[in-house]
């Protein structure tokens, strides 16, 4: 509402003085792209639980005059809303999102000192803020930081206080962060490190135990060279290691959980392991049902080695092969060995000429092909014999896709 300038106040029978916004049951208020709207925020709103404002920077607020429900579920302060931080002086809230507030120089003290904030999201902020000494609220259960490159992460000593933190996601942020101490977060269940270009090592001490970690995702961290081989992850269900060109190996001593059901990994990371070690690794992962492998030019033969040597778990349900640009053929016996395979995805394999149509497992329900020009040419003609063998399961897509499917 780009041209909206003034609130239309209510008046008349039943409207008492000072209550020109008679929405006593209103639970959610969102103001977006109202750059000309002037005046104070509406009051009273005794039932309000969610409030969002962005690109509406002519609005003013005096917290002492604001008669809102003092216990909100969620607050979202977006672009141009820095002057409204005084709003939350006298409010409690479980969730806070701060987005595109480029003039933000520090988080308000009331945010840092509260004990009720559980979810904090910081997104698309260009200013520089340091949390090295004061940290975040210790009540946090979930912290997501996205596109906040100048944020200085708290020191390792500070993070030991965060025993309640369950989810930590860092996307293209904290570019000064060079190492990540996994053992500082005893309650952590979900860790995502995505596009953190300065991280060189993920470390762990004190026995190497991360007891509650369920999802461990490290993607597109170009300088990551070291992943501790002493990590003990007894609860892990998802492991995702992708686009890590300097991470040369993944030690079989890394104690992955028998609960692991999804593995997404650059195949080059597996290349340092012998066939015997790979076999033992996959045998130990008794719950593994989904594997996605990304290729690199040096190690593309490893795909057929895994198949030919029958190293993959025979009860695997989903297999995805992405970005194997020199791969020409797939070993048929190894696919036939996967007697429970339901989904086979093949993405960005530009040299792959054919599939072993007669050796695909009978359990297969979906064959998904994307950005594989030679395969697409082989199966586009529905009159050809090749197509008839897989017509009941084939899907060929033309839309854009990032290659992540499971």
Helix segment tally: 8
Low-pLDDT segments, ≥5 res:
none
- Average pLDDT over all residues: 84
Radius of gyration: 27 Å
Per DSSP E runs of 2 or more residues, the count of β-strands stands at 23
Strand percentage: 15-25%
How does the helix and strand content classify structurally?
Answer: alpha/beta
How does the major sheet shape up? 16 strands, parallel
Distance N terminus to C terminus?
40 Å
Task: Give the neighbour order of strands across the main sheet.
Answer: 1-3-5-6-7-9-11-13-15-17-18-19-20-21-22-23
Shape: globular
Helix content: 10-25%
Your description of this structure?
The protein is 12% helix and 25% strand. With 406 residues, the chain is an alpha/beta fold. The strands form four sheets. Strands 1-3-5-6-7-9-11-13-15-17-18-19-20-21-22-23 form a 16-stranded parallel β-sheet. Strands 12-14-16 form a three-stranded parallel β-sheet, with no helix packed on it. Helix 1 (109-113) links the parallel strand 6 (92-99) and strand 7 (119-123). The longest helix has 10 residues, at 275-284. It starts with 27 loop residues before the first strand and ends in a 9-residue tail after the last strand.
